[in-house]
């Protein structure tokens, strides 16, 4: 039996590498499982949604909403500029609905990306009523530290049932449990939105077939063969114009592909601790134990460097436009997550490789493919909280319930005004209206609503290659495990300085190792790296994490 969850304090610096993932996923919408789209299921779903909507409106009618209030929703991202006119028009239409249904209006408070985490936390800490609804995340936006520090309001079951009834009914009890800190609910999870931010390499499938890889790239050895062929056959193309910041993703990807490692989110930027699929709660660091594997990795990266996979000044390359270059055929690979592939695999106007080269195609080699090592994204990777400083927490919940569950509110917030920023074709797919101007009319993603997306209301983008996307997503679903550490809130007060030192060592050495820029042999650089980790106390950190796991899970 697992012991009752105890309150553990957290002051760790959260992983920031996923910020780009969240950003990309906003513009790469996914949809619910196609198997649920049969006429019978659709009819039942419609009946149930109508029932829930009616019940929700009845409950709302019994609540005193005589005073008009403004609810401020805080999110990370930039204030719309070029699209501001259409953004403002969308907000007018949205607020008409919110005013009619709950006598409230919404305004969005943006935290720009520059020094975003500090400004985000400072805004929350002020507790001056500036914000009501707070977009947050357990793995990159300090959800648990802010809950621990009192920045978020405790959400009782009665409160949720009364003011956010549709959300309460749609979230399973097991998922509400994952939103608890010290036994209280603080978060409303984004648990009905299919997204995959596991990383890998997007590559030219047509080039792979030319190289003799008829089924595409499915291993790191295949990647090496692919890059070597591209460099020889297309000397004017840089195989992968990396900007030198992706050392961590490469190293962790190699480990995922060759072990059953399952990392704990949020402890440090390298995700250097975790368990294995068959022993989830015994903690170790593969960066210490997998010596032979790291040596193999270092040798392969040296080989890639010698092949010319990247530019010789890769570690100083801060101006790479690799993704845009992939779209037009100037490079042969992009390293990012699955949802970026869903864009690059699709025949959109921006992806001119498909128009310029009729046989062009894009494959995706995901890290962990060799061992089907796939972990589903935590449901609190995106979540909504209510600020403890909110002057109108009940009305804030009512507004959130509409944003998440009301079709008209949802479509306005996520896509803009139909006929202006988007439209729908005869197949029910989302298209661009006639006369659409990307620079002035695009609302999709500008509200950065990454905290309550709902596949029941998503409208599939007609430009996406859904046959390929569904095929990969179905495979992921068949092999995935759920993220197992959702309720683990690490107490790092006594080990934070060691974690910081370990993170710095990992960064310094992995930059050299992952781009083959180290001196001496692979054996020597790995030995030096591991000795530095041990001197910094990585074994002590592992032991302390194990102690905390034992308290929580055993």
From TrEMBL:
Protein name: ABC-type glycerol-3-phosphate transport system substrate-binding protein
Signal peptide from the UniProt entry: 1-26
Basic and acidic residues: bias regions: 44-54
Annotated coiled-coil segments of the chain: none
UniProt xrefs under Pfam families: DUF3502 (PF12010)
Segments of this protein annotated with the region Disordered: 23-61
Chain ranges of the DUF3502 domain: 484-553
